[in-house]
């Protein structure tokens, strides 16, 4: 049942993938769960499991809860979506009518499988690592209670008017890692140890503390708790197993002492040489799911193991141990595995994110299967003939005898094996399919490939795929020829494509051949999204058209750097167009390629939106300093979204003096900025503009001080300073003995500029004074009784321009129409002759 082998895992035979640590005949058989589980785990990953005698509940990383039978078939057509992130734990009540689950999304999900009367979806607003539902939750008269564990242990129970009442049972030391409920007792594990709580007495029965070495280990190790019965508690923590018993105190113990009725007594404690992923009872023995502590030579995890041990007081005896080849085991750690069991049936459910295997005790068929898999053919024949094979349900003399064919192939007796095939196969499709697998094991499929039926009778697609894969490994050119000749209806194209991609990684010398085969296979299957990787390897720029045509935007998240390698400008345009790829993802994927990151952020900054608001300007400062200095100073000037001190440090390291001048001026260190302009840049023009911009007398003095030791700077400053400050400030401080080139012209220019400045100031003063009195006169003579008269208004009778020099010669109505007195026929008339309003007139000057 290897993860890369054909999946006929519904059979009960024991495969080499579940191997013994030695040649001891095993006690357990393994079956990989299929049916709906295969589809569920293909698109999701298992995070936890809870098994009941009626069904099992599987929690996934997408927050879903699947209710299945013990063969992996869905019982309910509708999947329960109780959470938005991975389900941490599922608990089922004793009757099997209600389930409870928790997750890191901070929600508790209580669901009745047959009624919704007691359903709850409670948001707690904090991570919930564990949950346990009252075993009697759905019984008549049972308490509607459940317990959650996070940073504390909390009991929830349904009170009057269906309200939920909260009771904190304990403040956990470092957080609750797991909870287990049996009868009136609740056990939970924290960083300190395991506590047992008596719900009837409402008190703790004591703390089983961890050792110092255990408590110092990282937080992510899960503690496995399981009740064997109402009084026996099994604990698996890191690499230590504890078995405890809840017993009643004797009368003598309780006399004159205020003690709980029950006490927790340790029965056995021992250490194993692996990390414990799960623990379960098997009669008087224990089944322990373990994960090896050491990594393999490639730094990957080794296969998990299933151990049957018999505990002693401070030790144990290993009965048997099996290596489990679960799908993807190399990428998983001990916390990725789960173990649950049906104690009455001695069935154990081993769960990894992408696989579920069921282990159960061996029967006669299982024993025969193990004997055959270990090459003990004589013993297998003997076993199948005992009692005329009446106890065997799976094997008979014929099918055990056919196993000899495998032996012939493994001993390279291909002629004898061929003779056997001629006698057996004929036109029987089933026999062909069975025996082709045997040839596949010894890599002899090429010898029969030309004889495989491809006309009226065709075999299972997997047969043709096996042949293709053998050619792929042994003869890539022959593989390409078969892909051209065979109809794609014979095999599953997607499976062959995956094999080619895997093979391509390790056989670069056949790159062109395999890419040509991939092109044909993709055209057969129409999987355009899968062709992205091939296009990138071919460096074919039509990859962008393919993405846009089939809306494969999310598929490129892991190909961002590859697309930039292919065509950086086009890739950036694609990323930015309609925000198809979020900027955070692009930045994360390009964080190790600063050149590409610069190109992307530079383009992003040009279309900076309100949502971003310079989000990456701090990073862009460093990138501009490395790749495009000319863009650095404009960015510093226009943006406020970068750490100024960090930018100053970058510019200082690279001696970018203009940028340093700007940043120093921005933080108020104008004196140092001015010093850089004069000492490092020798840019007196910019220094003068800088002093003029800040208009600070001290800054001008600093500029003069910086210039006194340089005769050329003095000459330049004498020519320019007269426009801005009193030139005497500088002239008086020049050493009389200093030789200054062009002094005469500079002094003439300085005096001219200074006189011009004085004349300009006088002219401005005169204009300002005249404007003041003119405006004041106009205001006084044109604003009377709240009526404002403009010099440009016309007389309402003669239509001549009104000259407001003597207001007494004007008549103004409240409608703001005005007339010369001599133009009115009746000076005493009350209403305006233009608009005829019923208002009084007023005569200016009265």
UniProtKB/TrEMBL annotation:
Q: Does the keyword Transcription regulation apply?
A: no
**Bias category Basic and acidic residues: which stretches?**
1-16
Q: Which domain of life is it from?
A: Eukaryota
Q: Name one GO biological process term.
A: macroautophagy
The RING-type domain extends over 795-836
Q: Name one Pfam family in it.
A: zf-RING_Vps41
UniProt repeat feature CHCR, residue ranges: 559-716
Q: What is its main location?
A: membrane
| Keywords tagged on the record | Cytoplasmic vesicle, Endosome, Golgi apparatus, Lysosome, Metal-binding, Protein transport, Transport, Zinc, Zinc-finger
State any single GO MF term. Answer: zinc ion binding
Note down the stretches annotated as region Disordered: 1-25
User: What are the GO cellular component annotations?
Assistant: clathrin-coated vesicle; early endosome membrane; Golgi apparatus; HOPS complex; late endosome membrane; lysosomal membrane
Membrane protein topology class: Peripheral membrane protein
| Locations listed in the record | Endosome membrane; Late endosome membrane; Early endosome membrane; Lysosome membrane
Q: What does this protein do?
A: Plays a role in vesicle-mediated protein trafficking to lysosomal compartments including the endocytic membrane transport pathways.
Q: Which family does it belong to?
A: Belongs to the VPS41 family.
Instruction: Provide the protein name.
Output: Vacuolar protein sorting-associated protein 41 homolog
Protein's organism: Aphidius gifuensis (Parasitoid wasp)
